[in-house]
């Protein structure tokens, strides 16, 4: 048997360090066994999936040195490797489940589903909806079918008993079937959900081992059941521990920069980031901190993975990155790294039009453009003293902007301008007054290049990190304040 593993990211935003973490372990496991590593794009969310996000995922994984044997960009014998191009395959398999009685058409409306859940909650019952809960009166079912009502295809699931899932790290995992709902397999728009597409693709692509995050443990019974329904052998499962914030909560962009793009733009070396991700819940036999990707693959042992939630500590990553710079880069290599990082033609070419109208001598350039070549600017409470806004309003303004910027699909100047206009109207401020604190947070100064142009060039990750830093130096947002602000934000 040839070992085959995969990573299957969704192109719905910035490339996440958690994706790289899982990709790294899948790659190492495959290489240890002389196997193959596959990259598949799970883009069934047609509203949020973008080609830009897919390209960023491929680029960032390659930047980290994580190369795949088959994928949407290089092809392979099991393509296509984008789920959006495999619709007919999923439709055939969904029909097969309907014909065998292992799935059913559900004509329930969203309002009816909400009502069912509320009824069950009020009665103190489990909230998982079973086929019998969703069943309509036979006459109503026939009428809706005859009238062409929209429907989804759901899987049949047991109501009682326990599902036992075998895990390579955790042994036997028991999940009560009462907690497993009749999962939607095909949406009303004809697109598959993750659950059907994942199982069908893993089987057809010959995946033998699935290393994925532990958040998928509760989905394992559904996947195991689908393999049984199709009569297929299930790949071996391994649920990796989730990356954690220092407070042990799940790693999230609201508490930590999570995009690979952020670490790249901040000047971290790819080999240091890959090394650090390898230390997330795993260790070399000699427990050394610093090791290359090749060394990790040569010594990889899945049983050395610790199930305790690994903490993603930015200070520790920064320390390791410094070790790499000092030990691995001589002057020539450091100069080359600096050129590749920020002093390259493509990046500088974006900055020159911003500073050209403002300089009289070349020495004017760096004071004007310094923030483009920095990490987080040096700002303090005093930096905002000249902003004519109450402190509470100032924090709310910056926090609302962070939330708006987290939600936009296209990081382009016109989109950023739209968000600023919307929020300026909400706070009843002129654009100049609204942008004053944003200017300081993003550039570290009240006098520099256009802040919207700066945000566009710096990118989403660095911009949001700088805004979050400003919020923290202004006192931060307590849990009580966050609830109040979120309520106000929802009213926008």
UniProtKB/TrEMBL annotation:
One of its GO terms (biological process) is glutamyl-tRNA aminoacylation. SUPFAM superfamilies: An anticodon-binding domain of class I aminoacyl-tRNA synthetases (SSF48163), Nucleotidylyl transferase (SSF52374). A motif ('KMSKS' region) lies at residues 250-254. Residues 3-319 form the Glutamyl/glutaminyl-tRNA synthetase class Ib catalytic domain. PROSITE patterns: AA_TRNA_LIGASE_I (PS00178). Catalyzes the attachment of glutamate to tRNA(Glu) in a two-step reaction: glutamate is first activated by ATP to form Glu-AMP and then transferred to the acceptor end of tRNA(Glu). One of its GO terms (molecular function) is ATP binding. The keyword Protein biosynthesis applies. It comes from the Bacteria. Its EC number is 6.1.1.17. ATP binds at residue 253. This is Glutamate--tRNA ligase. One of its GO terms (cellular component) is cytosol.
